[in-house]
Design a protein that fits this description.
11 helices, elongated, disordered N terminus, mainly alpha, Tetracycline Repressor, domain 2
Length: about 220
């Protein structure tokens, strides 16, 4: 079970922008968000990480963004909408990274190593945002939960397709593709729960270890 203890380490702007880019990046790069809207999302991510969603107020977010509460409402109707935007963008970004890694790999083995290793590294490098989108999911409205679940299913399909390709090519031995995909993704997501910046295990090391572990778990042995 993922920890719900709020983080005491402030989120950096670069970390959040990297996690929600390119859609949530700065104007001028094909984005759909104004500079002020991005600043509000950064402030919301920082507040949710520090206090948790229930204890965060719109005034907290506005203060961190250097705005009045009314200034926040110009761009986002509620803090729930902000949570949804962070969750939607974070999941979409993660999905796109997995699709890209899978597409660029020459074999199913290379693809699985790249997507699970990369997904694990993402949850280390963006562990605070990862905790927000995973831990605070229950606070989303029903419609927003449905949309985020749709993105999660797309992520599941990326991994399941790679596993199926590996089974077809003889590289993998998997009895239940969808259950195995869920287990591998859960292993990567769990990194956000325990990762601590500055510890012995770096995001790069986690990427290598988890990518190789994923391959070992499904590789045909006979």
């Amino acid at each position: 079970m993922l920890s719900t203890v709020p983080s005491t380490t402030p989120l950096t702007e670069s970390a959040v922008l990297a996690a929600i880019a390119p859609e949530g990046g700065r104007p001028g790069g094909g984005t759909d968000a104004s500079d002020t809207a991005v600043r509000i999302m950064l402030a919301a991510a920082d507040a949710f990480a520090a206090n948790g969603f229930p204890a965060t107020t719109t005034r907290d977010i506005a203060s961190r963004a250097g705005l009045s509460p009314a200034g926040v409402y110009v761009h986002f109707a509620s803090k729930e909408i902000l949570l949804f935007e962070l969750s939607r963008r974070g999941h979409a970004r993660a999905r796109d990274l997995l699709v890209e890694a899978s597409r660029d790999a020459a074999t199913a083995t290379e693809a699985l190593r790249a997507i699970i290793g990369g997904f694990s590294r993402w949850h280390a490098e963006h562990h605070q945002l990862g905790r927000i989108v995973q831990f605070e999911f229950r606070h989303l409205s029903e419609d927003h939960q449905v949309e985020v679940l749709g993105l999660r299913k797309e992520i599941d399909h990326v991994v399941a397709d790679v596993l199926s390709d590996g089974v077809a090519s003889g590289e993998f031995e998997v009895d239940d593709v969808r259950t195995t995909a869920l287990a591998l993704l859960s292993m990567a997501i769990d990194v956000a729960r325990w990762y601590v910046p500055g510890a012995r295990r770096t995001p790069e090391a986690i990427e290598a270890e988890y990518g190789e572990l994923a391959v070992r778990l499904v590789r045909r042995t006979g």
